[in-house]
# Entry
Amino acid sequence: MSLLRKLSIRMAAPVLLLAALSWLVLYLFVVDTISFFAHQRAEEDLKSFSREIFGDCNHDFEELMQSGKLDDPTAVRIRKALTMGNIEDYLSQFRLQGVIYGGNGPDRQVLMETEGAEELATAMSDKDNANVLISRTIGDKRYFAYAFDFQPWGWRILVAQDSVAYTGLADEVRRLYWISGALLLVIAVGLVVVENRLLSRPINQIMRDLRSGTPPTYKGVEELEFLSTSIAGMMLTLTEREALLRESENRYRTIFETTGTAVAVSEADTTLAMVNTRFEQDTGFSKQEIEGKKSLADFVAPDDLDQIPALQSMISADCDAAPGQCEFTLVDRLGGHKHMLLSAAVIPGTTRRIVSLMDITDRKREELERRLEREARAADVLRRKNIELAGEIAARRKTEESLRASEERFRAIFETAEDSLYFRHFCIVMKISAESG
Amino acid sequence: MRLRNRLIVLVLALAFLDAATARAVDSVRIGVSSALSGRYAAMGRMYADGLRLWAKDQNARGGILGRPVDLVIHDDSSSPETAAGIYRKMLSSGHFDFLFGPYSSVISKAVVPLLEEYRYPTLMPLTTTETVWNASSRYIFGVNTPERRWTRAVFALMASSKIERLVILVDKSLLELGSPLDARKWADRLGLKILFLESVNRKTPADQLRQAQAAGAQALVVWGYFDDAVAVRKALAEIGWTPRIFFTQVAPSLEDYGRVLGDLANFSLGCGVWEPEVARLFPGGVEFINSFRREYNCDPSYHAAIGYAAGVILSEAISRTGETDREKIREMLSSLDTVTLVGRYGVDERGVQIRQRPVIYQWQNGQKRVIWPEPLSTAPLLFPPESKP
# Structure
């Protein structure tokens, strides 16, 4: 499997696969075509041989018939034997195998067989195979065979030829294909080696440099050299940026630690991921006890528990509408209470928030004192005002009593007056005495 | 002065050598080993005589491609080992353009590997046993009818003569080569029964013959050479048995057979590729006989005729090729189809002769008469009057 992960193998594989596939398809096509034509040629040849042998048999038979010796068993036997001999000579001349069977069905017996045709004679004897091309493998040889009947003598004559005579071209093609296959394999290996040398090695050199953390310095193949140079440039830029980042981080860490206020980084679930020393001092818990374990809500005083939702909404990442600042009372490890002003902001590109807590206990106290003082002053003013108001009220009450006595006196006079009296104020009669009534 | 003399001598020597080489290059040099002495001498000498006559006639006709034929004949003393040594020497010397095969299949068997090794296309005029050839043979070409056809002819003749039982005695060396090829097969096909087939006891064959007679043999076949045939025929007379057919493979072809056996030669049958009686049927046959009689004062056997024919075939192949390149001659001999004084020449892919047909002849009244095949026969088959049907 690790071999398949090699670049050179992967690059060569599609080409080789295609070549091998083409090779296979072409091989099958060519061999099949050649085999087809070989089969046809074998059939034609064996038919031609058979026709000639039939002709010889026919000639000998007719000669015997014309000699008037068809009834002479000795003459017939000799003629048949000589005909067999002629057939043997013919078969030998053309390097053919042949069998002559006599009789029919189960009584069929081998009358003649060429040297080495014993298995052929046995293999073909029980088949109704006349006038068709038969292809048969016997032992380690394959034969094409054709059988025909010479009825006057009750012979079935089988002519066979080693298929080597016809499959030579196919075998040659097969041999060439195997050679070309081997060549293809060698080319494949060569291709892999060349690719390995031209591509994998340079890439491995670049990879070695990268693994060791040094900028690659490959020189050679133009594209790979460009890649190497580009990677080296990028690495240089990254190093510079990393230095800047580190410097920035150090700066911010210093600020984080020395800002004078308690600062924490809160996770989206309000868990405190990181706190500074001042936070430790304000809460009385160590960083180890806080970071990743506690939430800001754990420090909220019971009286301010109603503030927790607001706090949580402020420091949870999904709340954009949260107020920027919020006050609450922090309970430290020793149970001491501190007023804290919480500010929170999302760290860009993250779900975290940076939370700063300013101890405003002193300010709160001062504010309280100032408020109390202000209230005292106001109370004093009020008291004085009350005193003044009380005096005024008393004076008014006295006046009112005087007025009421005057009025009553007047009313008594008015009511008791004999004359009709009325008050006119701007043409309006305001009061009419009883008399006037 | 001494140095100048030496230089003159050297120049003269080189000039002489060059002239000698040119003369050697001019001729078509052909080598052959035959049994001029030993067991096969009767046949071997005939073969050599036939070759010599051809070379003489060929040179009289202007040689081959205008070059004279230089025929060198060695005597192998009827020994396969000697023959192999002679052929190896001829082949390795490089002095011979072509070679002819030796007499007898037995000696040919020892020589053929050398001819194949040196890639000399060689006509084997008197090699009849097909086991000398093998599947990879490329450089040897038969001229004579293969033995297989002889067996067929003889057995067919027997069958037509109402013979049913026979005994076959075979020369030991031929038996080792597998001769007679297909004897049992043909006997079966033709309804003949071979009572026994064994090596002939050339020194005392009488016991074998008595055994054959006792077994009821009607025919006796001796598959061997001249001495085998003569010994057996004499033994037959000795024991007083006259088989209905006495066939022997080679010997009756020779006039010596009649001279040695006298009347005993009568009724003996022989088989060969050619007989003087059929010479008129083939081109150049009559001229050959006349020429041979003039040259050697006797009638040729088929051994001589086939030797002569081998020369004709080679010269024909070279003439058609137009050169003496051995590979081209090999190709020509593989495909050549021509008629000579002994009949038609043509070989199969191995080089075995396939176009030649045998003739069977019989000694009748001191003469050889062709009795088979029917179209060529000049006399009917005769049975000894004292033989039982």
In short: Chain A has a mean pLDDT of 83. Residues 3-179 of chain A form a domain with the Beta-Lactamase fold (CATH 3.30.450). The longest strand of chain A covers residues 141-150.
